[in-house]
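re the bet — no i am not wrong, look at it urself. input seq straight from the record:
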Amino acid sequence: MLGAVIGDIVGSRFEWNNRKSKDFTLLTPECHITDDSVMTLAIAQAVLESHGRREELAQRAVSSMQAFGRRWARGCYGGRFSRWLVSDNPQPYGSFGNGSAMRVSACAWAASSLEEALDMARRVTMVTHDHPEGVRGAEAVTAVIWSARQGLSTDALRRLVEERWYRLDFSLDDIRESYGFDVSCQGSVPQAIEAFLEADSVEDAVRNAVSIGGDSDTIAAMAGSMAEGRFGVPGELRARVLPLLEPRLREVLEHFERRWPPVPCAV
């Protein structure tokens, strides 16, 4: 999950000021968490609280997202989700936005099988993003993280995604010049997956994601979450990012990692 947070924080300063290059300072004083990190950690809290009882996961996700969203990253949320956060009777609203895909990494770490991971992802997604494309995006990111953790090769991961979710018939170099801002799952999840597949580390995946422009923090959060499943997060990068999380959010991350330890990083 830390990979998602790293991508979000690095991408935060580029969302409205795209940089179509991998050549930039990774972390600056302008970098900060956004709703992507907050919602990722809210889902992690829901997974922890459900104690493996998947039938509880949807309601736990609603409670955690509302509690976290009302407290942190206020002003970062879209209009419909903002209203959902404060609703006394929150209902799904047919969204296919990429918020469904950026927040699901906890499901891929807590599951013991791919199908369990996908079921968990659907449960935490359908409480808001019940459009088929919203679910598709959440499933695809979850599947890549889970499968990368199992050691699938780049080619095998590409085949998995293309067989079940998206065509990946492009490279980042193909789209970098023309790609624009797109917050839909179908318009940003394939690009985030490609940013991971072309990477050799978490940092490289995040740089790849930023380099195409668009919704930089969310694309980088998705790419970083997938890259962590393969490469792990170097200790030096972890040490630079953790202080940017407020104590309660850091506590959730560390609690989750004690329960489901992250991939060791060789670097």
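see?? The longest helix spans residues 132-149. told u. also Residues 78 and 99 are 10 Å apart (CA to CA). so pay up
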